[in-house]
Design a protein that fits this description.
Shape: globular
Strand content: 15-25%
Strand order of the largest sheet: 1-5-4-2-3-6
Largest sheet: 6 strands, mixed
Number of strands: 21
CATH architecture of the largest domain: 3-Layer(aba) Sandwich
CATH class of the largest domain: Alpha Beta
Number of domains: 3
Number of helices: 16
């Protein structure tokens, strides 16, 4: 039996190595025990959970195995009738008044991985204390309570369902899609071989706007990309298709469709910090909405500037939606998000939604009559130009403690010639720079890598800042795993 540790967003492992049916069942047993413990005052007939899955190797079978464990504990399982976007699974929790969800997905990880995400009754991430409790309830051995799928289904303890209609009905309340359909846009959609395939076509089809989908079938080896993560170089094929088709933009979603990527009319990637800024600007300026903004410490300082302009308070959290989602619920946030391209919105569920994020960007284009590059110019006219990049560098388990100790002791006076004005160790090691930018170095909670991030107002210093970050971590000039 392998140790199972819940990281930033649940547990992920390598298929057939540590990610096995036995270990998935152990996770499901821990989650079932958590539901029974936290809902001990509820009648047995009100105990239910949603289970969904992605298009990775055998995900539907791992989902069925998890369902058999929950059913054996008397928890009714609403099992999605096919591979389903993470935000749709999250919304189903609310619609079904369930106590939470299990999502079999490794999101943006490489093809050889799969994962086990858990969600609470809001549809959003469970807070860190809850995740630790679930982890503690996972049995050390393989003695797991389970019942056969057929028996559970015959007793009504497992029921398959279509989660799409209530989710789509809520989207219709959040954004009027008819003007987008009528706009005559040409949109390339890169579904990254994942769960987002077909959704924007379904929502926006039938009008003058043309949707061209690529990577929209099931292929668990993810051709033309190293992983279904909506950042370069994984998005290069989608951006090339934008140029090839003369499209107005490229809408991108990761493998489980909770992350939003975007390309402009010239086939250039709009990085995820700029997208966060654009989405906040759209809600504040175009929609005239007001409310708090929740951001992780790894994302853009443009949000603080927008908050000052529009009178919106900004709350900063650790990295991961296990921090963002509870804070969004607490403060009734207008928008919440993180550097990875995950954004959540008020009136929905406190969960990242790549479908809705892309719809809002398209609506921004239509309502302002601006191309994506012009929207970025509009954002910069308010907050100034900002430049971002990230390096992911391999860090073996044996190196982690040394890297952490090296960074804890680090007290650099300058980074790439910019004076360091502060250090934040809330989650990782963040060095605040004199231009208002930052260098952040974090040990990943989901993969054996160190992430080095920067945002700066000085484009010419971006790569030098990243190189200094790798050296500060004691990894020399180690090459990126990308």
């Amino acid at each position: 039996m392998s140790d199972i540790k819940f990281g930033t967003d649940g547990w992920r492992g390598r298929i057939a190595d540590d990610y096995t049916f036995t270990n998935v069942r152990r996770c499901a047993q821990g989650y079932a025990a958590y539901i029974l413990e936290t809902a001990k005052d509820k009648p047995a007939g009100e105990l239910s959970a949603v289970i969904g899955y992605d298009k990775r190797f055998q995900s539907e079978d791992f989902a069925a195995a998890a369902a058999e464990v929950l059913a054996a504990h008397g928890i009714k399982v609403w099992l999605t009738d096919g591979a389903t976007p993470t935000p749709v699974i999250a919304y189903a929790v609310v619609d079904k008044r369930a106590l939470g969800a299990i999502n079999i997905t490794a999101s943006h990880n490489p093809p050889h991985d799969n994962g086990f995400k858990v969600r609470g009754s809001t549809g959003g991430a469970i807070d860190p204390d809850g995740l630790k409790r679930i982890e503690s309830l996972i049995p050390a051995g393989s003695d797991v309570k389970s019942m056969s799928y057929d028996r559970a289904a015959s007793q009504g303890l497992i029921e398959t369902f279509d989660p799409a209609p209530p989710y789509l009905a809520n989207l219709a309340k959040l954004v009027d899609t008819q003007p987008i359909r009528d706009a005559g846009l040409k949109i390339v959609v890169d579904a990254m071989w994942g769960n987002g395939a077909g959704w924007l076509t379904r929502i926006l089809g039938g009008g003058r706007t043309q949707i061209i989908e690529i990577h929209n079938t099931r292929n668990p080896i993810f051709p033309e990309m190293k992983r279904p993560e909506p950042i370069p170089p994984n998005v290069d094929a989608g951006l090339a298709a934008t140029v090839q088709h003369g499209a107005d933009c490229c809408c991108i979603m990761d493998g489980d469709a909770d992350r939003c990527g975007f390309g402009d009319e010239q086939g250039r990637f709009v990085d995820q910090l700029r997208v966060f800024g654009l989405l906040a600007l759209y809600l504040l300026e175009v929609r005239g909405q007001r409310g708090p903004i929740v951001k992780t410490l790894s994302t853009t300082s443009m949000l603080e500037q927008l908050g000052q302009i529009y009178g919106a308070p900004v709350y900063e959290t650790g990295v991961g939606f296990k921090y963002v989602a509870p804070k969004m619920t607490e403060v009734d946030a207008l928008i919440g998000g993180e550097e990875s391209g995950g954004y959540a919105f008020r009136g929905h569920v406190p969960e990242r939604d790549g479908i809705l994020g892309n719809l809002y960007l398209l609506d921004f284009m239509v309502k302002t009559g601006r191309a994506p590059s012009q929207l970025v110019e509009l954002l910069f006219s308010k907050v100034g130009a900002h430049y971002y990049d990230r390096i992911d560098t391999v860090c073996t388990p044996a190196q982690r403690d040394q890297v952490r100790a090296t960074l804890t002791a680090a007290q650099p006076g300058t980074v790439a010639g910019l004076r360091v004005t502060g250090k934040n160790m809330t989650d990782g090691f963040k060095f605040v720079l004199e231009d208002g930018g930052f260098l952040l170095i974090r040990l990943s909670g989901t993969e054996p890598i160190v992430r080095v991030y920067t945002e700066t107002t000085q484009q010419e210093r971006v790569q030098a800042i990243l190189r200094d970050g790798v050296r500060l971590a004691g990894l020399g000039d180690a090459a990126s795993d990308d």
